[in-house]
């Protein structure tokens, strides 16, 4: 049996536990995986487990996991996707800032009137700026930062943007 753990944080305790395990049993590989904060375990490229601790927000140290069929869910490919923070200019000259893991599709959706409510009546839009990030969380934080910028600051970003 071959097992691999993907995790965002490899703590000293995890390293120690893994070392003890690997001395007694068939070794488990561990990889730093910064595109998500949960942990994933893949066994023999057949079984895929997702480990999360979202229930701990309830004030208890609960832990949950899900077993997924690796053939039906290509989760690692989805998690490897990059995220884009972007600014589009609407036909009325206003700017809209958003995030997406499929930038071209998202701009197309804005232009079809199926994007954000703000852009539906202001299309067509044109992409004037984007930044690429390795995970959703960082992209969301950057989106919030850009949304707080003044129109002039957003215009500066757009003017200095090189594809």
Written account of the structure:
There is one protein chain. The protein has 163 residues and is an alpha+beta fold. The chain folds into two domains: 3-79, no CATH class; 83-159, GIY-YIG endonuclease. Helices cover 32% and strands 29% of the residues. It has helices spanning 12-24, 75-79, 103-111, 117-120, 136-147, 151-159; strands at 3-7, 28-32, 39-43, 47-52, 64-69, 83-89, 95-100, 126-133. The strands form two sheets. It has a five-stranded mixed β-sheet with strand order 2-1-3-4-5, covered by helices on one side. Strand 1 (3-7), helix 1 (12-24) and strand 2 (28-32) form a beta-alpha-beta unit. It is elongated. It starts with a strand and ends with a helix. The mean pLDDT is 81.
Short description:
It contains 6 helices and 8 strands.
What brief labels describe this structure?
163 residues, elongated, alpha+beta, GIY-YIG endonuclease, single chain, 3-stranded antiparallel sheet
Helix content: 25-40%
Q: Taking all residues together, what is the mean pLDDT?
A: 81
State the order of secondary-structure elements, H for helix, E for strand. EHEEEEHEEHHEHH
The figure for the number of domains is 2
What general form does the structure show? elongated
Uncertain runs are none
Number of helices: 6
Largest beta-sheet characterization: 5 strands, mixed
Distance between the termini: 45 Å
Radius of gyration: 21 Å
Count of strand segments: 8
Strand order of the largest sheet: 2-1-3-4-5
Structural class by SSE content: alpha+beta
Strand content: 25-35%
């Amino acid at each position: 049996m071959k097992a691999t753990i993907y995790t965002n944080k490899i703590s000293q305790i995890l390293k120690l536990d893994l070392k003890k395990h690997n001395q007694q049993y068939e070794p488990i590989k561990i990889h730093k995986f910064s595109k998500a904060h949960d942990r994933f375990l893949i066994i023999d490229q057949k079984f895929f487990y997702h480990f999360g601790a979202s229930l701990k927000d309830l004030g208890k140290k609960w832990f949950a996991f899900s077993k997924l069929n690796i053939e039906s869910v290509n989760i690692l490919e989805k998690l490897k996707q990059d995220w884009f923070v972007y600014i589009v200019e609407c036909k009325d000259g206003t700017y809209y800032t958003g995030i997406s893991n499929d930038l071209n599709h998202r701009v197309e959706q804005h232009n079809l009137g199926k994007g954000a409510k703000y852009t539906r009546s202001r299309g067509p839009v044109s992409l004037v700026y984007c930044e690429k990030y390795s995970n959703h969380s960082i992209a969301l934080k950057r989106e919030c930062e850009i949304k707080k910028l003044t129109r002039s600051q957003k215009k500066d970003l757009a003017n200095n943007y090189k594809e």
